Amino acid sequence: MATLLEMRGISKRFGGTQALDNVDFTVDRGEVVGLLGENGAGKSTLIKILAGVHARDQGAILMDGRPVTIHNPQDAQRLGVAVIYQELNLTPNQTVAENVFLHHPQRMSGLLGKLGFADHARRDQETRRLLEQLGIAGLDPRHKVGELSVAFQQLTEIAKALAFDARLIVMDEPTSALPDEEVEHLFEIIRRLKARGLGVVFVSHRLNEVRAICDRVVVLRDGQNVGELPIAEASDERLIAMMVGRAIENLYPKRPAEPGDVVLEVEGLTRHGVIEDISFAIRAGEVVGLAGLVGSGRTEVARAIFGADRLDRGSIRLNGRPVRIRSPQDALRLGIGYVPEDRKVQGLVLGMTVRDNAALTVLRQLARGGQFIVWPEVERTSQRYVQELQVRPPRTDLVVGSLSGGNQQKVVLAKWLAANLKVLLLDEPTRGIDVGAKAEIHGLIDELAHRGMAILLISSELPEVLAMSDRILVMSEGRLAGELSREEATQERVLALASGKR
Amino acid sequence: MNTNIAVEGKTAKVAPLPALLRRVIQRPETSIILVLLALGTVLSQSSSVFLTSDNLFNILRNNADIAIAALGVTLVILAGGIDLSIGSTMAFSGLIAAIAVSLGGTTAYQLPSYGLPPAIAFALGVLAGATVGLVNGLLVVRLKVVPFIATLGMLGVVRGLVVGLTSGQTVRNFPPEFIALGQGYIGPVPLPVVFLIVLAIAVSIFLSYHVWGTYIYAIGGNETSATLTGLPVERVKLLTYVLSGALAGVGGVLVVARLGVSAPTQALGYELFVIASAVIGGVSLSGGRGTVLGAVLGAVLIGVLNNALVLLRVESYWQQAFTGGIILLSALIDRLRQRRS
């Protein structure tokens, strides 16, 4: 196989941090290369150098054996390099088709086309064709992107990359927002791209996916290439050991539950067109998984319980007593916490310190007379949770935005632990978080359940739901499609329920 | 980033500074003080009047009303909003206080005048301002009107109210105790400056030590997250608009007391100066970042610049252009600051 991309001895420094140190990286034509590494290992920097976002300090980039210069994203596009970032790069107020062909409008034929007039009908039609290639016929090219779920937005991004005939496609955690069913679609596409001789770089934290689609795996740690393996030799243990630099004993530390009394009981929760007639109960000390495809209404169930969205019908009981939750304020007062799926947009005030974020839920309790803040008290409280959750670095005066994803998520959790909850609703608590931090957060979920908290765990990652839950509820199209005990639950059974097959 | 530089002290080109000193230097307030000092040095060279205590206190007195209103708009901006109705609110509050306190009988067109005690007139003026703020807040919080539009609308409505109520007439003939609010002194310090200092300290303490002060920063920093954390977002935002209106009210009454007259065009366009004070002082228009001290210093800087234009005999017609230019400049500095962090 001929080498498509070769990056040689790439180094990059940000201030005092050596982000990349003499990294070699190659991709052959028709090859899918997995790029692995914990957050901060340098994957993003390497990708951004390839994309022309960052300039390298040292090293060379070759395409088809010829040295190339990539100064900006336009250069990268011209060379046929498409990067699909985790933080999607779409204009929310425009339609799917407008986004897909944003950079190379489909021109009209004849003079008008030469003058720069675009053919909207053809654009919509081309987009539909691309979407069909991706195996998503249900997505209307004329739909506004901002109104789509994260998953559909991601698919739009992929269509956008396909639209510019890229020869090398870099996907930064493309599956983190996709349910398993759609992950399989994506893999289909990747295989087709591969057959056409394109190179694909697949960045993911999910080792089983990397194994399912990649030919070769490259692992970065602390800005260095610590080795690569052909896929046949890449066992979980070896990969994790390479990524973390030590062996992780157990990614899913889950002890058997000792369920107590029913804490949260919901009945007939309905929000027209979104969720229909949802009823279930969670006992103290129980972790209940909520599985289902993206868009099946899992997040909406959590938001409805938390008072973030208005309910049309349904009742909620807490410790046997009926409660009315009309806002997140009510929920907090009753001891219900919600860790949202997007920690940067919904979970944290990135510009504030760890201290302020961690204490936000209990500021009033810590204040003299509920009014005036006693800062040493706030400091003590946040310090306690920073220690308990092992936030790194263990400092409360840092701005939250400067922490890694895993540590940011720990601060979100700290905020809710401080609030002394009865019920914790977790929405994708480990999305985009590296393996080490993931194991720690799983350990924390188990610990909280053992202290008697009732936990609802929403996750698109089936192994996580299966391993961490005592019971699993499966949603399909806004309804509860079924319930499985820990013993009954398998990937196949959950998927069958989720896709509406029984 | 800071720690990295400290760790890499040997290789960094700049010698490592003590952490405290570096933090002081990086603050936006520090740069304003430096600009003020530089400006002061230049002005004291070119004008013998500038560095007299009379002139300096005059600058402060004449700008205290703007600075006080800037305290209020700082709260709104920190919470992620904006208040464009400041100038109109100041005029409205001033008018209400003027009508309440006026002894009447001097103008051809007889506006009502009640001859109430100055303290009560003052309170009524502030209350009028707070009411405008309440309407602003309700438009934003309850009816979900974008703050820019809601307060732009109120800018017009309230100014129209002032002109309509007075038919374009001025209100005057105030008792000397009322005039003293704007023109009197405590020791060498003009009374409006005393008001400013007391209010600035109060607002500063509120922001740093009251629970809602931190809520304001959290809401301005990320409103979605603040909502999903169970904070009383709507009530806090409402409060910022009410306080902004009330503080503009204080400023508006002081203007009337200082000038001895309430005119329908009073404080026209003051929102420009007030918002500029906050922005120059490092209050980020995207919310969540900034301090009271910065906003006050920003107001002082604008005052000194206007004074400089007078002392240097630049025609007053040019002042607005200068102020506008300063806003753009400070917005630029705000951008640079954000990019670096």
Protein described:
- The complex is a heterodimer of chains A (502) and B (341).
- Chain A is 35% helix and 25% strand.
- Chain A has 502 residues and is α/β, with parallel strands linked by helices.
- Chain A folds into 3 domains: 3-80 and 166-244, P-loop containing nucleotide triphosphate hydrolases (Rossmann fold); 93-152, no CATH class; 262-498, P-loop containing nucleotide triphosphate hydrolases (Rossmann fold, 3-Layer(aba) Sandwich), CATH 3.40.50.
- In chain A, the strands form 4 sheets. A 6-stranded mixed beta sheet of chain A has the order 6-7-8-3-9-10, with helices on both faces. Chain A has a 6-stranded mixed beta sheet with strand order 16-17-18-13-19-20, sandwiched between helices.
- The mean pLDDT of chain A is 89.
- The termini of chain B are close together.
- Chain B has a domain at 65-268.
- Chains A and B meet through helix 11 and helix 12 of A and helix 1, helix 10 and helix 11 of B.
The average pLDDT value of chain A, as a whole number, equals 89
CATH topology of the largest domain in chain A: Rossmann fold
Helix content of chain A: 25-40%
Rg of chain A over CA atoms, rounded to whole Å, is: 24 Å
Instruction: Return residue spans of chain B where pLDDT drops below 50 for at least 5 consecutive residues.
Output: 1-14
Task: Work out the helix count of chain B.
Answer: 15
End-to-end separation of chain B:
9 Å
**What strand order characterises the main sheet of chain A?**
6-7-8-3-9-10
What would CATH call the homologous superfamily of the largest domain in chain A?
A: P-loop containing nucleotide triphosphate hydrolases
| Global shape of chain B | globular
Shape of chain A: globular
The counted number of beta strands of chain B is 2
| SSE series of chain B | HHHHHHHHEEHHHHHHH
Relative strand content of chain A: 15-25%
Estimated structural class of chain B? mainly alpha
Largest interface: A-B, 34 and 28 residues
Helix content of chain B: over 70%
- CATH C-level of the largest domain in chain A: Alpha Beta
Q: Structural class of the helix and strand makeup of chain A?
A: alpha/beta
Strand content of chain B: under 5%
CATH architecture heading of the largest domain in chain A: 3-Layer(aba) Sandwich
